[in-house]
Queue: 3 jobs
Job 1
Amino acid sequence: MPNARRRLERERNVGAVVFDLDGVLVDSEPIHFRATNRVLARFGQSIGEAEYRSFIGIGERASWTAWCAQRGITVPVAELLAAHTRARLEEIAAGVEPIAEAVALAHQLHAAGLPLALASSSTRAVIDALLAALGLGEVLAVRVSGEDPEVRASKPAPDVYLLAAARLRLAPAACVAIEDSGPGVSAAHNAGMFCVAVPNRWTADQDFRDADVVLESLRYFPLLVL
């Protein structure tokens, strides 16, 4: 396994685990994809899956700014973000698909007494709705949203992970991040965290060179930290 020596040295003193949300704990990209097209349809526009996948992980404001520029949409981005949030909340209310092994892992780590946090670029309303649907509201009480005022830049900037570490009252180097996207992995790496990548079908073709470990499944994750 690459970086095995660094992995073993650092993981002897794991202080906390920081989860990404979309694509890690819940298969929510189909929800976001449908919601995005619902908003774009108001302007006679759409986005294909291949283009959408290329934006996964970089943050909503940056994505919508680019999509508007490419399509000549002049509505303020803030209005589109609000519409996108409303559309996603409607999709979430219709049902979500948990990533069972990741949800079970969060419960397992929480039961073992390991501090946990969530670091996501999503809006607070979407984060709260998804965690409630997953039954993880109490397990992941420490949360960072891309809307938080301390977050000046979206992934791959380290802001969300630095803020998560601060709220955990730990040094970033004491935290292990779990990510599914290349920009997310780079954000955790740039924050100084050890990062475990778990790519999925939406992100498998992204760049994971900044990951310390790439796993096919989170079922092996407890071997790293417990």
Job 2
Amino acid sequence: MNSRVITKENKKEIANRIKQIRLQRNFDINEFAAILYVSPFSIKQWEEGKRIPNLEKIKLIAFIFKTTPEWLLYGE
């Protein structure tokens, strides 16, 4: 995986991709949080671009939802 810096713009793009995954699968925030073993508050923070998931969670999201960490982080 790349070692690029995460910018403010990247955070918003990551937020949008995480929300896109959740909405495409028709999960509410509580269901999505349960699948990822985090609080609904964490999901809200991620989707608002206030925080980003740690690398372990990025990899888990990618694995569960059949995408790549690179796509989640950089849109690639």
Job 3
Amino acid sequence: LAGSNPEALYRSLRRLAGFPAQTKVFPGHDYGPQPVSSIGFELEHNPYLQCPDLESFLKLRMG
């Protein structure tokens, strides 16, 4: 997106990754039949939260 800041997004995701695994996540978009998730589930299944560093996140995010 024009005007977006992928580095800020990465930092935000890293902060969220530090929350307790049972913390509920309510996505702001319709991503299917499951309207709620958890930090633990997202850490296991979300490829953006599995990036070990900013460089790999940017590579995945920017293509």
